[in-house]
Amino acid sequence: MTTPRLVLASASPRRLDLLAQIDLKPDAVVAAEIDETPLPNETPRLLALRLAVAKAAKVSAEQPDAYVLAADTVVAVGRRVLPKVETEAEGRACLELLSGRAHKVLTAVAVQAPDGRAVSRLVESRLHVKRLTPAEISAYLASGEGIGKAGGYAIQGRAGAFVMSLQGSYPAVVGLPLYETLNLLTGLGYVTP
């Protein structure tokens, strides 16, 4: 009996690196192109869950013989969702907002099995960022590290020095909660190598 394929519904190199930490190597990586615009009055928690489930469902429709793993990370201050930063101006606005305050990182993971069963979990982490000086913000923006990242920073990089405390899951903040991911996969019958 052969184990069905594992497909990662994400183009994130960080998620591939995290899976490698637990000896999981997807057979394929298929980015799920979906509209990630929040719905009216949608909370950050519901947004993260909806997007992860939608990504898994979309890729599963294209890869019906595989276990499909998808995730989505949302950075929020209260009910305000911070963008996946595309410009220096967006990055500056995010870092200025996060400076000296607590925020949440919500990472949802969804798995769809070849038999159609689907499960998902949301992992919430709370972080507190030190008060950032204008020079620290400018230097971080100049590094380019925050581009393409939810909330404009990467905790696994230089921004790790900005985080005073973290309650929750470090891998979830990076982009994939490993404990929950492995439990969801094995719970649906995926046999790990």
TrEMBL record:
Q: Where in the cell is it found?
A: Cytoplasm
* Alphabetized UniProt keyword annotations: Cytoplasm, Hydrolase, Nucleotide metabolism
What InterPro entries does this protein map onto?
ITPase-like_fam, Maf-like
In which domain of life is the source organism classified? Bacteria
The GO terms describing molecular function are:
nucleoside triphosphate diphosphatase activity
Q: What's this chain's function?
A: Nucleoside triphosphate pyrophosphatase that hydrolyzes dTTP and UTP. May have a dual role in cell division arrest and in preventing the incorporation of modified nucleotides into cellular nucleic acids.
Q: Would you identify the family this protein belongs to, as annotated?
A: Belongs to the Maf family. YhdE subfamily.
Protein name stated in the entry? dTTP/UTP pyrophosphatase
Source organism of the structure: Phenylobacterium glaciei
